[in-house]
Amino acid sequence: MSADCLFCKIITGDIPADVVHRDAHVLAFRDIDPKAPTHILVIPLEHTPNAASLAAADPAAVGELVQAAGRIAADEGIVEPGYRMVFNTGDDAGQTVHHTHLHLLGGRPFDWPPG
Ligand code: 5GP
Ligand code: ZN
């Protein structure tokens, strides 16, 4: 837990969110500024700044994030025609919140390579 972290405050309930899933490992909630019809953030309950840091601290936690995202994709009905999972890391990638989060995006086609 990090005192000045927005997503830690969502985990504790100090900041409200539209939660779609919670279990012993992860919390998932809808992005406040969605970039696609389905845009859900899946976050570990423990505070680490990015996915690589989480993998170093707790490799199993990365698996929990990806498994949860896959189940939520099925719940959202986006497995077909497809969806994207994204971990933005650092300034060039556009990371603005420094608590590890997986973006689950679906409901429209996405460009490749990304902008
Ligand atoms: P990043 O740019 O760090 O990869 O992603 C951070 C995401 O958090 C952005 O997509 C942004 O819209 C979302 N976000 C920022 N503040 C809040 C908030 O208070 N509530 C929710 N639900 N999402 C937020
Ligand atoms: Zn945090």
Comma- or semicolon-separated keywords:
globular, 115 residues, five-stranded antiparallel β-sheet, binds guanosine-5'-monophosphate, 22% strand, alpha+beta, HIT family, subunit A
Give the low-pLDDT segments.
none
Helix and strand run: HEEEHHEE
Number of domain modules? 1
In angstroms, what is the radius of gyration?
14 Å
What is the fold-level CATH name, i.e. the topology? HIT family, subunit A
How far is it from the N-terminal to the C-terminal residue, by CA? 32 Å
Fraction of residues in helix: 25-40%
> Which secondary-structure class do the elements indicate?
alpha+beta
Order of the strands making up the biggest sheet: 1-2-3-5-4
**Small molecules in complex:** guanosine-5'-monophosphate, zinc ion
Shape: globular
Overall CATH architecture: 2-Layer Sandwich
What is the arithmetic mean of pLDDT? 97
CATH level-four homologous superfamily name: HIT-like
Helical stretch tally: 3
Task: Kindly provide the name of the CATH class.
Answer: Alpha Beta
Percentage of residues in strands: 15-25%
